[in-house]
Amino acid sequence: QTVVNKIAAGEIIVAPVHALKELLENAVDAGSTSIEVVVKDGGLKMLQITDNGSGINKDDMGILCERFTTSKLKTFEDLASIGTYGFRGEALASISHIAHLSVTTRTKESDCAWRAVYSDGKLIPPKPGGSAEPKAVAGRQGTQITVEDLFYNVPSRRRAFRNTNEEYSKVLDMVGKYAIHCDGVAFSCKKHGESSMGVAIQSAAKTIDRVRQIYGNAVANELIPFDIEDQKLGFKANGLITNANYSIKKTTMLLFINHRCVESTAIRKSLESVYSAFLPKGGHPYIYVTIEIEPHRVDVNVHPTKREVNFLHEDEIIEKISDAVQEKLAAVDT
Ligand code: ADP
Ligand code: MG
After folding, report:
1. What are the structural domains, with CATH classification, of the chain?
2. How far, in Å, from the CA of 29 to the mean position of ligand 2?
3. What pLDDT score does 303 carry?
4. Which residues are near ligand 1 (CB < 6 Å)?
5. What is the rounded distance in angstroms from the CA atom of residue 326 to the CA atom of residue 238?
6. How confident is the model at residue 90 (pLDDT cuts 50, 70, 90)?
7. Which of 58, 132, 207, 225 stands 20 to 30 A from 326 (CA)?
8. How far is it, in rounded angstroms, from Cα 181 to Cα 175?
9. Each residue of 42-86: pLDDT tens digit?
10. How far is it, in rounded angstroms, from Cα 97 to Cα 117?
């Protein structure tokens, strides 16, 4: 059983950034307005996420890392959000099978924080011979999740990471994307033991200024907004796209569907082809698109990591978005 779980987990989490993405999403789901990330050795030695969100009930801590049995299933309200976010309930479970995982959390109602350590889906004693039960500790409202020694028990995978700087930049990139998308939330990301920040976004920063801070002035100064809605197809889309005066060697695309950062080759290809009529040969755009689709129309289970999504009426929706982008590009004098 343990081996099977370990293999399954290793398919969901292939690199530190995949664990990080899940932890970021959980922190956002918890209604946090501040999310801090600390990274050691590209996330292989340690990934630590501290949020100021709802916290986790002490009573839920025992089952936190069991697959599909998390607290989300307990209330009707949560059942509705399952559709929105693509319920799987297995991120923490997966992480606990391939890393050392500890959680310190405090809800508004609790008069202290609780700390627990997990392995293979279950609570374990922090020290051999001790109690596995959550321990009362001092702490503020919110949750701190520490993932250490990722792939410690999958040496072949662990060895595949020669360059931890590359993993760190993937982590920074992902934090940056969520920082751009999550209005009203402060984000920071840095290497452990260093004071200089890789990402530092204040909660009050506007979307355009978030882009400016993360991708620079050159991009931010050339952005045009777009915003469309189609009731028949049941979707809304908006975003920021570079105009025809701006071009880069490789397309930078941030795509969020129902507030999840995802990939869609179909959308990327379609928008690249729209831009190809406006940009010099070899030039590419910066595109930030956020789409909201009625949850039941989105299939997030195409791939366990949700890196590629499919959705109902995909072709028509992509066409609408491409038309909107085309119109914007054509309307701006170059
Ligand atoms: P899922 O997010 O799909 O439910 P996860 O394994 O990612 O599955 O998380 C399990 C559950 O743990 C979540 O549903 C949530 O109730 C709780 N949880 C995880 N991280 C946090 C957090 N940072 N703050 C509050 N609750 C959390
Ligand atoms: Mg989750």
Report:
1. 2-201 (3.30.565.10), 217-331 (3.30.230.10)
2. 8
3. 56
4. 22, 26-27, 30, 51, 53-56, 64, 70-72, 87-93, 143
5. 14
6. confident
7. 207
8. 10
9. 999 999 999 999 999 999 999 898 876 544 444 434 444 444 444
10. 12
